[in-house]
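Q: What would this chain look like folded?
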Amino acid sequence: MSVSGKTAIVTGSNSGIGLGVAEELAKAGAKVVLNSFTDRDEDHKLAEELAAKYGTEVRYIAADMSKGDDCRALVEKAGGCDILVNNAGIQHVAAIDEFPTEKWDAIIAINLSSSFHTIAAALPGMREKGWGRVVNIASAHGLTASPYKSAYVAAKHGIVGLTKTVALETAEQPITCNAICPGYVLTPLVEAQIPDTMKKYDMSREDVVRNVLLERQPSKEFATTEQIGGTVAFLCSPAAEQITGTTISIDGGWTAL
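A: My prediction, written as structure tokens:
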């Protein structure tokens, strides 16, 4: 699973799933570019800590994934990449007739259009090097739907379609493009929601996790960021050379229902 010497860009990677993916790629020997829209001392310190921990090069490059020019500039500033993981995303929940237009525009821009821009910027360099891996972090909501999440579901379905298109356009080259579709993942953001949900429903932590958060996840267990990172690393390995244009669900059986 070694990707030693390869350069990997992971968008939205200063926390949560993106950070988990970045850690697994760094562990496998990749030179990693972390990213988010902020440009704080702690962002650059995080890169330094990962570099020291895994003995590889880790940089932080700020870029606003809601802006196409920033997305493309991220790839340029990184000096291109061998591995591109499109992970940046936001969420908003509301009925469609009450969904704020600005929220719709932001979700489509960050969750979908950003991947178009980064892929378009990265592919020429991958073709020149004769090797490339694109992994798009979609969602179980890229394969199914839930009410009140119109923008998120539309964007994630779009990511699955974009993945298939890129795979077909690169099918005769040593470049693959796949989508990972996680269910609920235990991230710091999700962890922080549990105490308030316990109070709201007057439930124990175990009942909140099992009956509220993981209601649609048959395994009744969260996926982990390490599992998603490990799957990304697998998709970059020789074993996955003929895996392209498909989705891999890490959802505890959600989409089997």
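The mean pLDDT is 97.
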